[in-house]
Every structure is written in C-alpha cells, then in structure tokens.
Write a structure and sequence with these properties.
Layout: E1 2-8, H1 11-22, E2 27-36, E3 45-54, H2 71-78, H3 83-103, E4 120-121, H4 127-136, H5 152-177, H6 180-191, H7 196-212, H8 224-239, E5 253-257, H9 264-278, E6 283-287, H10 295-306, E7 310-312, H11 319-325, E8 331-335, H12 344-351, E9 360-367, H13 372-383, E10 389-393, H14 402-411, E11 414-419, E12 428-430, H15 433-441
Parallel strand pairs: 5-8, 5-9, 6-7, 6-8, 9-10, 10-11
Antiparallel strand pairs: 1-3, 1-4, 2-3, 11-12
Helix pairs in contact: 2-5, 3-5, 6-7, 6-8, 7-8, 8-15, 9-10, 13-14
Domain SRP54-type proteins GTP-binding: 251-442
Keywords: Bacterial flagellum biogenesis, Bacterial flagellum protein export, Cell membrane, Cell projection, Cilium, Flagellum, GTP-binding, Membrane, Nucleotide-binding, Protein transport, Transport
GO biological process, one term: bacterial-type flagellum organization
C-alpha cells in the first residue's frame, strides 16, 4: 500500500493530483485544516492536509488472497497487517509535528503548491480490508474558521484510532486463517461463557502445542479429536492447582457465605448428611440467618431429620456462646444470611461472625445460574478476607459452566463441591477437574 500526504489550498485542488499519482482506486483516509508559516504560530496561511492511499499493484482491484495451504502460511497471511503499519503512520505523524514546531519560528513563506511526503511501503491489505478502510476510517471535515488549530492531542487520537482499526483487520484475518477444528473449539468456549481473555489464551496454547508436534504443518484439516484432546490437557494443567479436595477430617468448623437464594442451607444439609452417615462424625448446626422468613425453620427441619443440635445467633456477641454449646461436636456447620455481597459493608458484617484458625474453613456459595459479572464482584469482595474456596450450586439448571474457569483464573477461587439438584444428601459431589473439563468442552464433533 502507498500512502501520500498533500498540502493544498482546498480539497478539490488535491483530487487531480491524487488521481494522477495514485490512480482511480485511491482512497482519501483523512483531511484536516492546518496552518503553515507565520510567526510564532500566528499569521500562518490556512491549508488543507489530505492523506490518500492506494493498494500496491496498480489501479486494478486486488484479488483476494488464495486460502493458505498450511496453517503456518495462514499465520503469515493473517499477520500481513503488522506493527510496521503503525510505525509508518507514526512516522507520518512525526513529520507533521516537526513541521508544526518549525512553524513556531520565523520562516520564509512556503509555496502553496502540494508538499509531497516520500512514499511509504505499508503491508498489502486485501480488497475486503480496503473496502472496510473506506467505511471504517471516517473522513473529518475541515474545521470552520475561528476554531482552535490542530493540536498534538488530536493527532495522537487519530493515530490511536487507526491503530485500533489495524488491530481489528489483523484479528479478522487471523479468524479467516484459523483451521476449522480450532475455530470450533473457540466457538464452544464462548458458548460456555468462558471469558474471551481465557478463550484466546487457551487457543494460543493449543496452537503452540500442535505446532510443536508438527501437526499444523500439514495441508490437510487438523483433526478435531486432536484439538479437543490438546485443549483438555491444557485445561487440566490450568486447574490442577485449584483442586482443593473434600472436607478434611481435621476441620472443625465450616462457614457458608453467599448471596441470597444460592442454596446455602440445602448445601449444608447435604454435606452434614454425608459427614454424619458416611464419615460417622458428630455434627452441629449454627445459623445467623434471621433475616429471611422461615430460614431458621428450614435448617431446624434438617437438624431434626439428622438428629443434630442447632443454635441460633442474632449478633456477633452470641457466636461464642453458640460454639460453647456445641463444643462436644466434631464438626460444626454455620449458616449465614444471604445479603447483597456486592456491597463491601455486608461482606465486612458477615466476616465479623466467622471463626479464624487452621481448623476453620469458609465456603463461598455461588449459583451457576447467576451472572458472571455479579459473581466476580462478590468473589472480589470476599477475596479481601482470604476466602477463596467456593461451592457451586444449580449446575443442573444451566448448560454453561464457563464461570467456574473464569473465577478460578481471575480470582483464584478453588472449587470444592458442585451441587446439581435438590435431593438431600445425593445431589452434590466433590469438584473433579477432569469431570469438569469434560463437561465444559463436550464431545468433539
């Protein structure tokens, strides 16, 4: 691509110059009113700066590039728009700013004829990207007389906009060059509501592993089973450090915190039944959830069924009394009120009820049917108090499981259990990375 800069008295004066030198297919990228000459930036003549460009290779429309025969060739095509393009634009901007600096000193009057910049070699764009250039790059009209003259901030803003446009074009070309199997994996991740940041990183690592194994050098399509297997292996490497295991036999207290309606009380009943019936431990209940109607009655019902004691506390000062009453119990489950934990005040309030120590744990309970943005805000607020273990509920009510990966990668949340129904004590299981990754990726088509 060739880019030229013209400085003329008016835009119509530049049109024949552009046609003669760049051809009929040239496009005008930008126009600006500037001042040239004068003294200390004053009394300069008003001129119109015109930036025009044309694809290399003449006036005939460039043919779309053939589909790359290998993925490596595809990558080279995808990176046809490179940082050198930005460097070229920056060079053009630098020359313009240098001209403005010289205009601040006494100088001879410059000619009113066109001032041509040397030609710049810019990486070739396809005809489709050239078409987008005509529509994406807005042509700004010359400012009315009396407005402030062009300044450096405006120039930098234009360079930034053009850089963003180039990045968009580059990403579009990369998508076109991506093998179908890898694109199918990317679509699956987005369908599972995996954040684009982690989806992009996974795709990048999968491509690197396939390339290192020599599987991207073949002109034939990449096998989807291989892509899925590589993605599964990569995700297991990511999640290995986040597996926190089941309730330890040394644990004496487990607090349950989380927003309203996520299933804290039901989860407590499931885990208490497991510890009572399977592990044979003596269990006790404490609840501070006195805000919700019938919340205490719900936990009291479970306590009656499991034949375990229940203590109710109404303030932080009563927590010590409740634990004293249950000191003979081997494991105590403490339920807390569900609040709007996007508010740090409520997080601080519930944290004042929690016991500390090596034998006490806190589970943040989150529903997989919730919005990830809300879950992320809640997780961030609790992370300030060192709470990083999470129990996910309502897996049976959604088909998107990306939030588990997102919260682990962004906030370091360690999944402990996954609840997938209302049946007590059956519908809950310890988090297993292999099972989760299989559910996240699904079956290769």
């Amino acid at each position: 691509m060739k880019v030229k800069r013209y400085v003329v008295n008016a835009l119509p004066e530049a049109l024949p110059m552009i046609r003669n030198e760049l051809g009929a297919d040239a496009i005008i990228l930008n126009t600006k009113e500037i001042r040239i000459g004068g003294f200390l930036g004053m009394f300069g003549k008003k001129k119109t700066e015109v930036i025009a460009a044309v694809e290399a290779g003449g006036s005939t429309a460039a043919k779309p590039p053939a589909r790359p025969q290998t993925v490596q060739a595809a990558k080279r095509a995808a990176h046809a728009v490179t940082p050198e393009t930005i460097a070229s634009i920056a060079s053009l901007a630098s020359s313009h700013m240098a001209e403005r600096q010289s205009a601040k000193r006494p100088a001879a009057k410059q000619s009113a004829t066109a001032l041509l910049e040397p030609e710049m070699d810019v990486p070739r764009l396809t005809s489709s990207t050239a078409y987008e250039a005509r529509t994406a790059v807005k042509q700004q009209p010359a400012p009315e007389s009396g407005k402030q003259r062009f300044n450096e901030d405006e120039l930098l803003a234009e360079i930034r906009d053009m850089k963003q446009w180039i990045v968009r074009m580059s990403k579009q070309q990369q998508l076109q060059a991506r093998p179908e199997a890898i694109q199918a994996l990317y679509d699956r991740l987005l369908e599972q509501e995996v954040c684009q940041t982690w989806a992009d990183r996974l795709i990048e690592q999968v491509e690197q592993k396939l390339e290192a194994a020599g599987l991207l050098d073949q002109p034939v399509a990449v096998d989807q089973m291989i892509v899925w297997s590589t993605a599964e292996q990569t995700l297991l490497e990511w999640l290995k450090e986040f597996e926190s295991g089941v309730i330890s036999s040394d644990t004496q207290v487990i607090h349950f915190v989380g927003p309203t309606g996520v299933g804290k009380t039901t989860s407590i009943a499931k885990l208490a039944a497991e510890q009572t019936l399977k592990a044979g431990r003596k269990v006790g209940f404490i609840t501070s959830d006195t805000y919700r109607i019938a919340a205490v009655d719900q936990l009291r019902t479970y306590a009656t069924i499991l034949n375990v004691p229940l203590e109710v506390v109404f303030s932080p000062s009563e927590v010590a009394r409740a634990f004293k009453q249950l000191e003979e119990r081997e494991l105590i489950f403490m339920d807390t009120a569900g609040r709007n934990f996007r508010n740090e005040l409520f997080v601080s309030e519930v944290n004042s009820l929690l016991q500390t120590g090596s034998k006490a744990e806190t589970f943040l309970v989150l529903s997989l049917t919730g919005k990830f943005k809300d879950m992320s805000m809640v997780a961030e607020n609790f992370a300030k108090y060192g709470i990083n273990r999470v129990l996910y509920t309502k897996q049976d009510e959604t088909n998107a499981y990306g939030a588990i990966l997102n919260l682990a990668m962004e906030h370091g949340l360690r999944p402990t259990y996954i609840a997938y129904g209302q049946t007590v004590p059956d519908d809950i299981a310890p988090f297993k990375a292999a099972r989760y990754v299989s559910q996240l990726l699904g079956e290769a088509q």
